[in-house]
Design goal:
GO molecular function: oxidoreductase activity; quinone binding
Radius of gyration: 25 Å
InterPro entries: SPW, VKOR, VKOR_sf
Structural class: mainly alpha
CATH class of the largest domain: Mainly Alpha
CATH superfamily of the largest domain: VKOR domain
Largest sheet: none
CATH architecture of the largest domain: Up-down Bundle
Keywords: Disulfide bond, Membrane, Oxidoreductase, Quinone, Redox-active center, Transmembrane, Transmembrane helix
Family: Belongs to the VKOR family.
Shape: flat
Order of helices and strands: HHHHHHHHHHHHHHHHHHHH
Strand content: under 5%
Subcellular location: Membrane
Number of strands: 0
Length: about 450
């Protein structure tokens, strides 16, 4: 933590004990020692209270929500200032999260209400959570047995960029679903995006599904900024939640997009681009989650409670960090953003085969369930091939082997495949199995995960 923090409102008394405190304790106490973020939160609260009278929300529920939320922000911020209560500060973070969701829950009738709550929600989370959790922690940055630190700013940068891409795409589609615009960008599939956004599947959600996606991407981006370069061991809880939002929830989102041609009968360009961004986010996030999991396992093996280690984090001797003589420097560079990820030509070919399968029904005139199978399995091949570009997840490439076998068999047993498409399936399936077996290069070390990352049958 920088020295000038001592001049912050309220002072920084107690800094001399930082080295003896657990990371979780320090983060809980920090809002009571650095008080200046509470003042912009109070201003944001006043802004929210005034907003319904200024922007004309045309919704009683949205107006009440903003007035109540603004009042809560002020009360909780004043509680931090007067009572030195760190919990009150983090409670404001949940108010910020509600502000992101409120326009969707109440189907805000005006774009001003949607944009206002979204921006204020982001600022509230920034001041109540990101700013007060930015302190530098002491101790090692590289996990035991690893050649690099998976939590550096450079490592997080491409994840944040991919999240921003998904956020802006989803916000654009949400504006269409909420009725703020009649235009939605779709350069390739005609009315495809409109068909997806107005489909019965989309209407099954009680709120705008595109808007919910925008909230998820916003949370991912904000969590990408949270914590210092040691957060894999100082904030296991945060890395866990970040991993849940990006990996399983991201995978479910990708599966829903893949199913669009089957459920809706249309593709959506922005949905596909968002899914591609999410795939790279998954491949780039796994390493940090893995390092956190190894740290928690080590702490429990040393006799510490999993619950305590999960919330409070911890450290270990600097001499045990990294790999002797083979640890990368934390110095930021372009390529350091992609440590933990490599792209063997085998996986490039597999990805190309998946894309070709997705396009082949239109090329060969395949119809019916054969066309559905080709598009679905092709998208799955792309999904698993991109995820396998992450070195810790390289073993995922083997999922393409049974998919390749199905590609060979499917045209013979499913209706709608012309002869040329049948033999195309045979060729693509056999080639996919062949290129899914080699492992490719693994450049880095991942501690106790090395045996899995480097697994190969040849």
């Amino acid at each position: 933590m920088s020295e000038n923090h001592g001049a912050s409102s309220g002072g920084m008394a107690g800094h001399g004990n930082e080295q003896s405190q657990e990371p979780g304790t320090m983060m809980l106490e920090h809002p009571t020692m650095e008080l200046w973020p509470q003042y912009p939160i109070v201003i944001l609260g006043l802004w929210l209270i005034a907003s319904p009278f200024t922007f004309g929300y045309e919704s009683v529920l949205m107006s009440v929500s903003d007035i109540v939320s603004g009042t809560l922000l002020i009360v909780l911020a004043v509680t931090v200032l007067v009572r030195r209560n760190g919990w009150a500060n983090y409670a404001n973070g949940f108010v910020g999260l509600w502000l992101l969701l409120a326009p969707l829950v109440f189907w805000a009738p005006t774009s001003a209400a949607y944009l206002n709550d979204t921006l204020v929600g982001v600022f509230v989370i920034t001041f109540s959570v990101l700013v007060v959790m930015r302190m530098e922690m002491s101790g090692p940055g590289v996990p035991r047995g690893w050649t690099y630190n998976p939590s550096t700013a450079a490592q997080r940068a491409p994840i944040i960029v991919a999240g921003l891409i998904g956020f802006f795409f989803s916000t654009h589609m949400a504006a269409f679903q909420l009725g703020y615009t009649d235009f939605v960008f779709e350069p390739f599939f005609g009315q495809g995006t409109v068909n997806v956004l107005t489909s019965d599947v989309s209407k099954m959600f009680p709120i705008s599904d595109a808007g919910l996606g925008a909230v998820a991407y916003a949370v991912e981006v904000l969590m990408g900024f949270m914590g210092d370069k040691r957060r894999w061991r100082t904030m296991p809880w945060m890395v866990t939640f970040f991993g849940i939002v990006v990996i399983p929830l991201g995978f479910v989102s990708i599966m829903l997009i893949i199913l669009q041609p089957l459920a809706v009968g249309s593709w959506c360009t922005l949905c596909l681009l968002s899914a591609l961004a999410m795939l790279f986010m998954i491949a780039l996030t796994v390493d940090e989650v893995l390092a956190m999991g190894q740290f928690l396992y080590r702490r429990t093996q040393e006799g510490e409670s999993l619950w305590h280690a999960f919330w409070m984090g911890g450290t270990f001797p600097e001499t045990e960090a990294g790999v002797d003589g083979d640890t990368r420097s934390d110095a930021a560079s372009f390529w350091s953003m992609f440590w933990g990820m490599s792209i063997p030509w085998y996986l490039i070919v597999a990805t190309g085969l998946g894309l070709w399968l997705m396009a082949s029904p239109a090329v060969f005139g395949t119809t019916g369930v054969a066309a559905d199978s080709s598009q679905l399995v092709g998208a799955l091949v792309v999904t698993f091939s991109v995820i396998a570009m992450g070195e810790p997840t390289r073993v995922v490439r083997f999922v393409n082997v049974p998919l390749g076998i199905w590609i060979v068999v499917a045209p013979w047993i499913l209706s709608g495949a012309p002869t040329v498409a049948t033999w195309n399936g045979v060729a693509v399936g056999v080639l996919l199995v062949i290129v899914s077996i080699p492992r490719g290069s693994i450049r880095d070390r991942y501690g106790t995960w090395d045996d899995i990352a480097e697994y190969s049958i040849i």
